[in-house]
C-alpha cells in the first residue's frame, strides 16, 4: 500500500529541482528551507501568518488597481491569500522560526502556497508565479517586517488591550467595594499611616489604566509600516503608488489605520519600533507583577500572615499539608512576567542584527514579541477572573489599625515630630497603643478621637 506521506513530486526553483511532499501546496524553495533549518520545530505564530497573508491580499488588489496584474490573476491571488489569512492552510507553513534572518524563507513559503492556490482557482493551464505575481512590488525585506509589526498590532488590539480593560474594570469595582475598609498602610514593608483598601485598589486600577494607554500608543506606532521599501528602502521594482494603495487596503482589512513609513531606510534597517513596543509590554508586565505581588502579600496566612485579603481558593496547594491553599493564579502570572522579561532581552538583542540596510533577526523577534503579548493577555484575563474578581476583605486589616505605631504621625502637627516619635517607640516596647499613651500624657480624649480617626487619616489634612 502506498504511503501518502512518503509520496513526492518534483518542483523547481532558481536553484534547480527539489522533491517535495506530493500533497504540499508549497514548492522547492520552501522544501529547501525545511531541510536547512531543523532547529526547534517552532513555526511562525498564527497571527504572523495571518498578517503576511493579508499583505499578499492587499498587494494583489493594489497591483490590479495600478494595472500591474491582470484582474483575474489578482483576484485569484487575493481570494487565496484571504483563505490563508483565515487559517485554512496553516499546515502549509512548516519552516522553523530559526531560519534566514530576514524571514525570506517564510515569505517565499507564503508566495508559493498562495500561487499554488491561485493557479488552481484559475484552472486550466493558467499559472501564477510566486515571485512575478504574488510577490509583485514586494521584497521579503519590507513584507516580513511589515508582517511583524501588523501581527503585533493585531495581538495588542485583539488580545492584550481587551484583557487589560477587563482587569482595570475589575480592579476599579473592587476599589469601590473596598472603600469603607481602613487598614494599615505600609512603606518599606513596615507599618505606615492608615489607608483605605479601596485606595490601594484605586492605585492598581490606575496603574492598569496607564498600561492601556502605553499599549495603545505602541499599537499605533506599529501601524506605520515599512511596506514599499522593497530591497533596501529605495522602492526598486515597486510602483510609486503601490505602498499607499496597499496600506489603504490593509487599513480596510484590519480596521486599523495602517500607514506607509515616511522613512523607509530607517523602517526596515532597524528594530526600533518592535523594541519600543515590547518595552510597553515589559512595563505592563512588571506593573501586573506589582499588583499581583501586593495581593499575594495581603493574602498571606490565613492565620500567621497579614491575611487582610482572602484570595479565592482554586485548588489544593500541597501534596503533604492537608487543607493548604496557595495563590497559584498569582504564581502563574508572575511566571508569565518572567517569560516576558526574557523575551524583552531577545527583542532588544535583535537590534544587533541591524546591519546597514536590513535587520536579520526578524523571525525570532516576531516570535518573542507575539509570545509576550499573547501570554500576558491570557494571564491578565485569568488573574482578573480567577483572583481579583473573587477577593474578599477580611476584618484583620481594620482590627490592626488601632494597634498601629504610625498613628503617632497624626499627633506630630500638635505635639511635634520628636515627641510623636517617642510615643511610637514606647508603644512598640510596651505593647500599648498610641491612644493609651497619649491619654496618659494628658491629651484630651475628644481631641484624640478627632486626631486618631483612621478614616480621617486617609485624606489630606493637618491635625
Please give the structural blueprint.
Elements: E1 8-13, E2 16-21, H1 28-36, H2 46-65, H3 71-85, H4 104-122, H5 130-134, H6 140-177, E3 182-187, E4 190-196, H7 197-222, E5 224-225, H8 242-254, E6 259-260, H9 264-267, H10 272-298, E7 309-310, H11 328-349, E8 354-355, E9 358-359, H12 362-386, E10 392-393, H13 396-401, H14 412-415, H15 417-430, H16 434-440, H17 445-451
Parallel strand pairs: 5-6
Antiparallel strand pairs: 1-2, 3-4, 7-10, 8-9
Helix pairs in contact: 2-3, 2-4, 2-6, 2-8, 3-4, 4-6, 6-7, 6-12, 7-10, 10-11, 10-12, 11-12
Explained architecture:
With 463 residues, the protein is mainly alpha-helical. The protein has 3 domains: 25-136, Orthogonal Bundle (Fumarase C, Chain B, domain 1); 142-396, Fumarase C, Chain A, domain 2 (Up-down Bundle), CATH 1.20.200.10; 402-458, Fumarase/aspartase (C-terminal domain) (Ribonucleotide Reductase Protein R1, domain 1). It has 17 helices and 10 strands. It has helices spanning 28-36, 46-65, 71-85, 104-122, 130-134, 140-177, 197-222, 242-254, 264-267, 272-298, 328-349, 362-386, 396-401, 412-415, 417-430, 434-440, 445-451; strands spanning 8-13, 16-21, 182-187, 190-196, 224-225, 259-260, 309-310, 354-355, 358-359, 392-393. It has a two-stranded antiparallel ribbon. It has a two-stranded antiparallel sheet with strand order 3-4. A two-stranded parallel ribbon has the order 5-6. β3 (182-187) and β4 form a beta hairpin. α11 packs antiparallel against α12. The radius of gyration is 30 Å and the shape is elongated. The protein starts with 7 loop residues before the first strand and ends in a 12-residue tail after the last helix. 46% of the residues are buried.
